[in-house]
Specification:
This protein is globular. By secondary structure, it is an alpha/beta fold. Helix 5 links the parallel strand 3 and strand 4. It is 44% helix and 14% strand. The chain has a single domain, classed as 3-Layer(aba) Sandwich (Undecaprenyl pyrophosphate synthetase), CATH 3.40.1180. 32% of the residues are buried. Bound molecules: farnesyl diphosphate.
Length: 250
């Protein structure tokens, strides 16, 4: 049996493989509440959240969704208690180091987006290594937004473009969507078709503001560590029932 056939077999029969989103973005919310409900420290929710993310990545691969982007740490998350921030930074580093071999084996191409220069040096090293080692992988594109803020991303693109204009390298009339996008952290990535947010909040929280102009938004009350394949199936099913008009009349 070819890999492709086994992938099709695993996709739930009610889902249309030709109408799957090409790119799914996730806001992994509710880790703290998941832990609190169990009388555990918040960090245990994040720890458990890693397993949910790993399973979603594998599920995207199995079912034929070619790109997944996860919001791991926002520019606003620095405002959390120091121990939690420290735990998260160490967790990212540990997971990256631990999973790199498996990502290579599964042909995952990992990319980090955000203001990476302000992250701890040791984490930056793991990020560089992960991106470099997996750059030629042609399986699923896995993007992790870390120290990411949509407004900041747009601002830094504006500044870079303004500098080019100032240096006479660019005329303001040449600024179009394509050029603008080439200055975003996500340059070269397709726009998410579907945004999934867990734990019931109906907000974008500064995530991929430009890129998600036409994303379908799916919100579930499920807390992130409990988000599994059944939940993903429900999200994809809801997505396939949406009519995507992109502002036009169909
Ligand atoms: C939001 O839940 C979750 C986060 C800010 C962290 C998410 C990070 C992970 C799941 C780890 C991912 C790991 C890698 C390597 C990419 P919350 O703490 O805001 O939950 P609450 O709203 O219930 O308090």
């Amino acid at each position: 049996m070819t890999v492709k056939q086994s992938k099709l077999q695993e996709l739930p029969v009610d889902l249309d493989q030709n109408r799957l989103p090409h790119h799914v973005a996730v806001i992994m919310d509710g880790n703290g509440r998941w832990a609190k409900k169990r009388g555990l420290p918040r960090i245990m929710g994040h720890q458990q959240g890693v397993d949910a993310l790993k399973d979603l990545l594998r599920c995207c691969k199995d079912w034929g969704v070619p790109a997944l982007t996860a919001y791991a740490f926002s520019t606003e998350n620095w405002g959390r208690p120091l121990e939690e921030v420290d735990f998260l930074m160490t967790l990212f580093e540990r997971v990256l180091r631990r999973e790199l071999q498996e990502m290579m084996a599964e042909n995952v191409k990992i990319r980090f987006v955000g203001n990476l220069e302000s992250l701890p040096q040791s984490l930056q090293l793991e990020i560089d290594r992960g991106m470099k080692d997996t750059q030629n992988n042609r399986g699923i594109q896995f993007t992790v937004a870390t120290n990411y803020g949509g407004r900041q991303e747009i601002l830094q693109a504006c500044k870079a473009i303004a500098a080019h204009v100032h240096q006479g390298l660019l005329h303001p009339d040449d600024i179009n969507e394509e050029l603008f996008e080439s200055h975003l952290y996500t340059a070269g990535l397709s726009h998410p078709d579907l945004l999934i947010r867990t734990s019931g909040e109906m907000r974008l929280s500064n995530f991929l503001l430009w890129q998600m102009a036409y994303a379908e938004i799916y919100v579930t009350d499920t807390l992130w560590p409990d988000f599994d394949r059944t939940q993903f199936h429900l999200a994809l099913s809801a997505y396939q029932h949406r009519e995507r008009r992109f502002g036009k009349v169909m």
